[in-house]
Amino acid sequence: GKLVGVFCTQMPPESKPINSTQVLEQTVQTIGDRMHSFKYGKTDAHFYPPMSETIAKKLFEVTDRWDELEHIAEGPRSLQSLVAMMSQSDGLTSAVAALEGVVVDEAWTAAPALQGSKIVVANKQLALLQGMCRDAVLTTQSGLGVTSKDIAASMSSFESNHNLLMQGGSVRRLAAKTDVAAASDDPVAIDLMQKAETQWLALKPALEAIATGSQATETALRTIVESTASAVESMDAVATYWGTTTRTTTMMSLEILAPVPFTGDWPAGQTMRLAAQLAESLINEEQQILPGYNLKHVFHDDK
Fold it and tell me: Rounded distance, CA 171 to CA 164, Å?
C-alpha cells in the first residue's frame, strides 16, 4: 500500500479525566509548605514567624491538627479514610478560626483602622466555596451524612457574606465578639469583589441544581469542580488583598531612640528626622533589613 496521509483527532478538554490523586497530593504538599512558612518564616513571600506567644501557641495547635489530617491524606484511599478526614477537618477548621481571631485582634490593636472583620469573612468565603464543592461530590455517596440541604445552606451563607463585604454589617466571631464591617468603598476591593461575584454566578446554577434535588451526574460534578477552582482563585485574590494589610501591623515593634538637635545653635533635627522617617518607611515596607520587625523612631531634642 501507499501512505496518502495521516488522520488524527483531538479529544475535547472536557474528555480529559480529573486526576483526583494528583490534585490531593499537590494540595497536601502546598498546605505542608504553607504550615512550615507560617512557623519558621519565608520573608521573600512575606511570611514571618509568629510575633507573639499567643499567636505561636494557636499556630502550633493548627499545625498539630494538620499533622493528623496529613497522615490520613497520605495513607491508603478508602471510604474509611474519607470519613476520618471529614471528622478531623472540623478540628482543623476550628483551630484555624481561633488562630485567625488572635492574629486579627493583635493586628487591630496595633492598627484600629485594619479591616479585620472583612479578612475573617473573606476567608470564610473560601472555606464555603471549597465546602460546597466537597458536599456536591459527597452527595453521591450514601452514609456520609451530606445532603442537598447542606449545600443550600452554604449557598445562602455565601451570598449573605458577599453582601456584607460589599455593603457592610455586623460580623460575629469567636469568643462572642461582634465586629462591624464598613461598606466597601475601595475601588480595588470593589473590582475584586465584582470579579468574585462573576465567578460565583457561573458556579451557582450547577450547585443550585443539586441543592434542589437534581441528580449529581458526572458532567454536573465536573462543572462544579472546575467552576469552583475559578471561584476560589477570584475569592483568594479578595482575601489576599485585605489580608496583606496585616503585614506590618502584626510585626514585632522595634523602637529606636533618636536624639537630634531640633533647637540650639545648629537645629538640623528637622532634616535628620525627615531622612530617618523616610528610611524607616522603606525598611518597614520592603522587609529586606530586619525582616519581621516594624521600626519606629522616637525622637528627642538633644539641642
Answer: 8
pLDDT of residue 176 exceeding 50: no
Half-sphere exposure of 231 (CA within 13 A, CB side): 28
C-alpha distance from residue 198 to each of 124, 126, 201, 211 (Å)? 18, 15, 5, 20
State the Cα–Cα distance between residues 136 and 231, nearest whole angstrom: 15
CA distance 114 to 219: 43
Predicted pLDDT of residue 175: 47
In this structure, the strands spanning 293-301 and 252-260 are parallel
**How far apart (Å, rounded) are the C-alpha atoms in residues 111 and 224?**
39
- Tell me the C-alpha distance between 46 and 255, whole Å: 21
The residues pairing with 253 across neighbouring beta strands, listed in sequence order, are 294
Say if CB 170 and CB 183 are below 8 A apart. Answer: no
- Residue 150 contacts residue 121 (beta carbons within 8 Å): no
Q: How far apart are CA 109 and CA 89, in angstroms?
A: 30
Q: What would you report as the CA-atom Rg of the chain, rounded to the nearest whole angstrom?
A: 25
**Alpha carbon distance, N-terminus to C-terminus of the chain:** 102
Over the stretch 273-294, which tens digit does the pLDDT of each residue have? 888 888 888 888 777 787 777 8
Name every residue whose Cβ is closer than 8 Å to that of residue 64 and which is 6 or more positions away in sequence: 95
User: Nine-digit cell at 237?
Assistant: 485574590
Closest to 100 measured CA to CA, from 124, 70, 81, 80: 124
Element of type H or E holding 148: helix 148-167
List CB contacts of 24: < 8 A, sequence separation 6 or more.
73
Nearest to 297 by CA among 247, 254, 248, 250: 254
DSSP state of 247: T
* φ/ψ (deg, to 5) at 294: -115, 105
Residue 303 pLDDT:
77
